[in-house]
Amino acid sequence: MVVRVQTAPFDAGKELALITEGNFNIGGVCSFIGLVRDITPSGKINAMTLEHYPGMTEKALQKIECEAHDRWPLESTLILHRYGKLYPGDQIVFVAATSSHRHAAFEACHFLIDWLKTQAPFWKLEDSPSGGRWVEARARDDKAAERWGHGPNQKPNLT
Amino acid sequence: MVVRVQTAPFDAGKELALITEGNFNIGGVCSFIGLVRDITPSGKINAMTLEHYPGMTEKALQKIECEAHDRWPLESTLILHRYGKLYPGDQIVFVAATSSHRHAAFEACHFLIDWLKTQAPFWKLEDSPSGGRWVEARARDDKAAERWGHGPNQKPNLT
Amino acid sequence: MRLLYFAWVREKIGMSREDANVPDGVSNVGDLIDWLSGRGREYEEAFANKASVRVAVNQEYAKMDTPVKLNDEVAFFPPVTGG
Amino acid sequence: MRLLYFAWVREKIGMSREDANVPDGVSNVGDLIDWLSGRGREYEEAFANKASVRVAVNQEYAKMDTPVKLNDEVAFFPPVTGG
């Protein structure tokens, strides 16, 4: 299990090599990279700034990985997330899951990103031509996370 | 759309960079790497040799990519497949799909590998302690491909 | 009590962290929000719509009735939007 | 007609390709297999279990009733196992 929160970009090929190296039981590696788009649901953006909660972020990401290992027979997992100022085309997040069989790898990888989106304490501030704008959480992401069953964390809100 | 059949290993990070570069409409990149395991359903193996049908292989892979583009709103796709002698831990295949949204990328990537496994003319010869052994097609792979609807090609057999 | 604010909650309150002398009667998250809301207009505005604020106590997601104690770290922030 | 054999079909027949002078009566894949099976024990064994052989005509998957013509490329192989 690997969790890293960093400002620097990552080398997907190198990271995948690290989580598979020497493990000849791995038959499949599924990975997902999230990138900054230049058009978002609220319009054109020049850049975005990702804020996070140091300390809690790492814990939340580790929990998501543990949950994935509980649910699927995985050999290794990886979550890398960037913060700070990012531009269109930049990588934001990289998740991966390895397993002896491909379906477990696909499902676990999909789960990692779906839960990360609703559980990990990151916030996006879009820098648009009309000024800064905090991205709002999307019902679609909640739905995607709910597919995997009840989340332990963020769901109970304050009302 | 990229299709390549080669003996050389590939650099996943570099390949992913190539299919995303300059396209700021891509929000998600899902990719899958298949690796040689040292234990297969029939036992321990030392190596495996992949044979394929030059000419038909490239056509079959292109068709699979076209089918994925027909079914999902994709920005780009990639299929790389190796042939020749490979050892445990070696990469066999690399597929990827990019889209503005992650679910399309995940589904299309899963589809690419599921269909490839039942449609692309590759054959694995396992080199085990007891000699060479042609890998048999697995019902599980047919089932996985059927999830995506009827395949146009290999299904009708000769009986 | 160590209080942390993130994203637009931080912007509304005007700071990212503070060490607050929370009175004795404040025993859970709900009490804490009520107390903070009475400290000034910036707090009142930040907590005006409770449904849009998430809370973590010692870096774990919390609810209105989650207890808070003297040395806890309590964070307030909008629903998360990473990934 | 250009005939190609792959994997264990190639091993059983003992070659990977041949240019065959196929007689006039052979008009589809089924006819071709029947004719080949009569050419010797290696062919007979390769095609003994038709259900385990796949066929492509001009690099497209084919069925028993797919027509074959003089200049076609016809390939015989086991179910695929790549990926």
Through-space gap between termini of chain C: 30 Å
Question: What is the CATH class name of chain A?
Answer: Alpha Beta
Q: Superfamily at the CATH H level of chain C?
A: Beta-grasp domain
Q: What is the C-alpha radius of gyration of chain A, as a whole number of Å?
A: 16 Å
CATH top level of chain C is Alpha Beta
What percentage of the residues of chain A does DSSP assign to strands (E)? 25-35%
In words, what does this structure look like?
The complex is a heterotetramer, with 2 copies of chain A (about 160 residues) and 2 copies of chain C (about 80 residues). With about 160 residues, chain A is α+β, with helices and mostly antiparallel strands. In chain A, about 30% of the residues lie in helices and about 35% in strands. A 4-stranded mixed beta sheet of chain A has the order 1-6-8-2, with helices on both faces. In chain A, strands 7-5-9-10 form a 4-stranded antiparallel beta sheet, with no helix packed on it. In chain A, helix 2 (about 55-70) runs antiparallel to helix 3 and helix 3 (about 100-120) crosses helix 4 (about 140-145). Residues about 155-159 of chain A have low confidence and may be disordered. With about 80 residues, chain C is an alpha+beta fold. Chain C has a single domain, classed as Roll (Ubiquitin-like (UB roll)). In chain C, about 25% of the residues lie in helices and about 20% in strands. Chain C has 3 helices and 5 strands. At the A-B interface, helix 1, strand 2 and helix 3 of A face helix 1, strand 2 and helix 3 of B.
